[in-house]
UniProtKB/TrEMBL annotation:
This is MoaD/ThiS family protein. It comes from the Bacteria. It comes from Streptomyces endophyticus. InterPro entries: Beta-grasp_dom_sf, Mopterin_synth/thiamin_S_b, Sulfur_Carrier/Prot_Modifier, ThiS/MoaD-like. SUPFAM superfamilies: MoaD/ThiS.
Length: 92
């Protein structure tokens, strides 16, 4: 099962600069564990205590997984995952 994972700039140090990588898993938790076997340390930047980190948004085929089953969201061959860190701040 091949799933494309789009990597944000801030996490590309874990993927040797790759903008997208392939992974496998039946759900998001398994996918992130699989990614971590090839890109050590990336999972801990996305997942904390078995849940998605608060300021990391994950999309399955352009749908926010927080409105699906979160870290337990089921995946299928050919799905596309986008990881987006939340951006905050600005000028007063």
């Amino acid at each position: 099962m091949a799933i494309e994972v789009r990597i944000p700039t801030i996490l590309r140090t874990y993927t040797d600069g790759a903008k997208a990588v392939e992974g496998a898993g039946g759900n998001l938790s398994e996918l992130f564990a699989d990614l971590d076997t090839r890109h050590a340390g990336i999972a801990e930047r996305i997942v904390d205590n078995g849940q998605l980190r608060r300021f990391v948004n994950v999309y399955l085929n352009d749908e926010d997984v927080r409105f699906l089953d979160g870290i337990s969201t089921k995946l299928a061959d050919g799905d596309s995952i986008t990881i987006l860190p939340a951006v905050a701040g600005g000028m007063r």
